[in-house]
Structure prediction request, 332 residues.
Amino acid sequence: MARKTATQNDDLLAPVTLAVGQEDLLLDRAVQQVVAAARAADTDTDVRELMPDALRPGTLAELTSPSLFAERKVVVVRDAQDVSADAIKDVKSYLAAPAEEITLVLLHAGGAKGKGLLDAARKAGAREVACPKMTKPADRLAFVRGEFRAGGRSATPEACQALADAIGSDLRELASACSQLAADVEGTIDEAVVARYYTGRAEASSFTVADRAVEGRTAEALEALRWSLSTGVAPVLITSALAQGVRAIGKLASAPRGMRPVDLARELGMPPWKVDRVRQQMRGWSADGVSVALRAVAEADGAVKGGGDDPEFALEKAVVTIARAARPSRPR
Prediction:
């Protein structure tokens, strides 16, 4: 769901709705909610969507002028930060005296570009909806929980985490997965159900093995490994994921201190959400531990590429070694 700001009123038919952010799914939902409310009030509601180049001087006045049939309208302006200076004057004038039976929806990316329009809409008391990119794993996990709650379904914390891990950062895919599980599964949605539907994905399941291993969660890493192998994931994909996971720990551990998160992500060649995740995973790691883990990965890689008699055993050995390196003080 699109997230409310602290100052937002709850009237979907407020004269102006301002959706701010760069998450396309949330922006689309903000529009859909307004349109649905308008059509519930008037089934003949006229909906017009405009890109910035279509909003010329006079266009907004034409679209919001009184109708002969007094019909309700929803006018949506996408990428409002790119509206021309001349058209912005029209929008600001409209904000000062919005028309009755008309809802104006401005979709704005936020940031410095087009900030004058953003400030004007807020000053005019626009209903505001936050639609930020969800770059942090915790945000995506909260999104999954919210999707199940909105659908009136119960899902265990482990199921929500497994789904977020399996699908990744695409919010549309996450929303679709939640919808599918809610439609197909009766009762509480648990981790086993998620595994049956989604962890057969090679990339997702191999990275789940790596994540659990570098977090020092031996039993869970081995369980994920066996599941991946049983569903046909190629061992070489798993060694690749293990290598990436350990290298990410090493890269972040050796990165300069005090860098801004954005600069750090650029320096390491990782998206910001990945930096956040690796920072959480690296607790307990040492330089010696990284060296031991990398050697274990190299040995497993050689085994799965024909240098050993039992690739599965080699992978299990590597997973155990990595998990122990991650938590050297913990008894196993």
